[in-house]
Specification:
about 1100 residues, alpha/beta, 7-stranded parallel sheet, 6-stranded parallel sheet, 40 helices, about 10% strand
Length: about 1100
Amino acid sequence: MSSAIVEFPRFITAASLFDGHDAAINIMRRMLQASGAEVIHLAHNRSVQEVVEAALQEDVQGIAISSYQGGHIEYFKYMVDMLRERGAGHIQVFGGGGGVIIPSEIKELHAYGVSRIYSPEDGQKMGLQGMIDDIMTRVTVDNPPGPAADIDALAGGDRVALSRVISALESGGKEGGGLDDSHKARLQALVDAAPVVPVLGITGTGGAGKSSLTDEIILRFRQDSNNALRIAVLAIDPTRRRTGGALLGDRVRMNAIYHPSIYMRSIATRRSETEVPACMRDIINAVRVSGFDLVVVETPGIGQGDAGIVPYVNASLYVMTPEFGAASQLEKIDMLDYADVVAINKFDRKGADDALRDVSKQVQRNRTAFDRAYEDMPVFGTIASRFNDDGVTALYQNLLPVLRERGLKTFTSSLAPVTTRTSTRQTAIVPPQRQRYLAEIAETVRGYRQHAEQQAVLAREIQQLDSASRMLTAASATDESADNLQALIKQRQQQQDGACQALLDQWPAMQADYAADELVTEIRGRELRNSLTWTSMSGTTMRKVSLPRFNDHGDVLRWLMLENVPGRFPYTAGVFPFKREGEDPTRMFAGEGDAFRTNRRFKSLSEHAEAKRLSTAFDSVTLYGFDPDERPDIYGKVGNSGVSIATLDDMKVLYDGFDLCHPSTSVSMTINGPAPTILAMFLNTAIAQQMDRFVAEHGREPGADEVAAVKARTLESVRGTVQADILKEDQGQNTCIFSTEFSLKLMGDIQAYFIQNKVRNFYSVSISGYHIAEAGANPISQLAFTLSNGFTFVEAWLARGMHIDDFAPNLSFFFSNGMDPEYTVLGRVARRIWSTTLREKYGANERSQKLKYHIQTSGRSLHAQEMSFNDIRTTLQALIAIYDNCNSLHTNAYDEAVTTPTEESVRRAVAIQLVINKEWGLAKNENPNQGAFIIDELTDLLEEAVLLEFERIAERGGVLGAMETGYQRGRIQDESMYYEHKKHDGSLPIVGVNTFLNPDGEDQEGEFMVELARSTDDEKQSQIRRLRDFQQRNAADAGRDIERLKQAAINNENVFEVLMDAVQTCSLGQITNAFFEVGGQYRRNM
């Protein structure tokens, strides 16, 4: 084939294995599409095998990968090697990883065969579009020629040859790179001799879930035939006529295609005027010649009257949803005349039963099948998004005989027959009648605020009238005037809320309390005495809590109802009256190499601290629930950007030497997808510590009752949090590994276990906005999405029958800070919305009303250019977090822009907090933000912006409904794109990045003389050896415990309770694979 200019260049785009929130690659794939490319986007967490297999089947010219979690050298080299081994060395590989891939590594990868790695400096010089233009030029003009189409290899079943023949058929005539006349004749001869195979057309309305349903049907074929069938999937998507580009978006949602028996090819309509390209028949014939048993053709979403797929197939499935409008609309759907089977997908939506009846009757009328009941028509209710849905199985089992009539080869079925015709497991996470919960919350918060304003007016008028009455009396006015005023006073006093009057009545006593030298408070029955003053170096006596100097009762009441002092409702200024003495909010952050190395880092960081706040980062292998392995794309990431933890043995080493039950020790574990497994390992580690202490103290092993007592005390004492928030993981496209439904079930199981075992001091979930912000969200979206996720857990757990006060104290919130003004009041708004809602709407007690506000400085404001400037940004963010009374604070190290933080950079990051807390005078004040006009205004503006966002999410069916349509992801990506454009065009000044640039340019040699904290080969090999040793030691019991774990999931028992035992014998990866089998894998979205 010639190296002529490629008219329709094709790309695979993805984030590398164990890399999450693919904001950067999403921006790049959108810009590639807009520049005329056909893009097959695979989203985040893709192995080299998956990417290369897709590249070969899709016959692309380029692969574009983002890789920012380390292991990039191994990943890119492995990809280049695999492409060459598969005869596809002509496919160009492009990549980027922010500043993580340093200049010397870029040179190394270029020399190895990677076409181009783009650095932040490239972005600075070329701009976003300039980088895209460079990629497009390389693959369209300077493209190396690929192998010619080989018809004989195609006939022999060569999948790569099939892909190249399909590309040639799409290209048209010989002059466009297509087949010449001899090749066409040879192909036609093979087609004439090929056996007839069933061709199933799957079509339907846009957004009906065709891709998910197609994937589930392929999975049923694989399960039922034990992978005996060879299946080809041809997925068609429309070309954008204006640009010539196309988003080929079906492969990203497919989980069942990654098997040697399955072939998938995405096809753009290109010049076709319909939803089926003109060459479709030739493509289907080429697939038939290649030896497949079944061909599945999925079309793009179509309108009502279009049945364009019918001439190309010999069986068809029409997919729709319950929301088709009036029953009369069904008469306009042409496919109801032709479809062999009809699926009403998303059957959990409102009106599904009515839709099933109306569609069945319409099919009965179309077929004039009045001799049969409409209930017997081939119409099925399915929920393709639900793992192992019996409605999908019923659909498949009805489709199977239809395809056998069309020539599908026979096999012995393995799936048990189902008798239902619709999905039977429709237990919603949030019940349908509660889907407007966020709109109700917005009404509650606004209603409380309106009530506060009304009561403030009444309080002001009562005070004014009372003053006027006293003045009239003093002036010897007539009794009638005084009586009239008293009547007005009494009228308003009757309108005054009793609780509001009580607030005003206690105001003088409160002023006296805070004017004293110390304040006595009570927490959980313990009396605490806190000093209320400190003396500056200049001898000035400063107050730790400053009260407003209001005299007007309206202003006083309004302040008490909407602000109040720290530790009092609505907790706007903070949830505790004072910071803990001797316990700054500083967190000791570590996570690198193996457990031994991270343990040493923890001990070094906490050596001089009374409180041990251990904040743990895990490597991306652990974050995605895998075990360490020698395979290059896994091996490169073991122990990089976090610590490698695969077994209970590792967890015990990680926290060795720290008393996990001590009141001043707390552990924060940043992990989500496999959080239940990691949490079970941690709790087992804490229990094992206390068992060892018992043996040391008593000189013997504990008895059965003593074991139970030790375990109970441990669970009641241990402090910390595990992130576990699967909702934000989906929205931010991060470490989702299991199906969303199964993940939420596991989270509920953890909380149920906590309630049963009185785990009061450990947060069952840290509801996180940090990764939402990292994926590109602005502060308003971060706060709104995070709080809405928190309220979704509230609704879901109330629906499970839990009591609000049993679980609300186990929830905490974790936010990213940043440079935008809204971050100054993020905590104030979060606390006020949460407490108001919990008290006014859910009737929760005081402990439940307190939102725990944990902060990490922004990772997005860490730039690889002028890295030393990052500490300036981090210092400012730390200051506003402390002023906002955060419960804990993690300051990022300046060099995290390019590497796992080094010991030196972490010391500097911790020093930022120490300097603020110990040297910065005003930090000793507990409410420095209160009383500033701009703070008050920003608080009100941000609160209203969040409530408006709540209403937008409510209109989409709540958080889960909005997630289904990709609302949150779309918003995050748009905001990320906006930020990147502003950064690149210079309209958003970033010092050292796009303004105040170093006049001498970047000193590449000097800039990267910093130590790169990467894991060593010795650590990686040690981890693999320790894993194999653990698995061998426990081989006899692991199989039994894995089976128990599966059965607990299948029988809807509390899986976490069984998991507490399973982690004693099973590795992280073994447990993850077991959960895949019974809970399903996460289905990625665009």
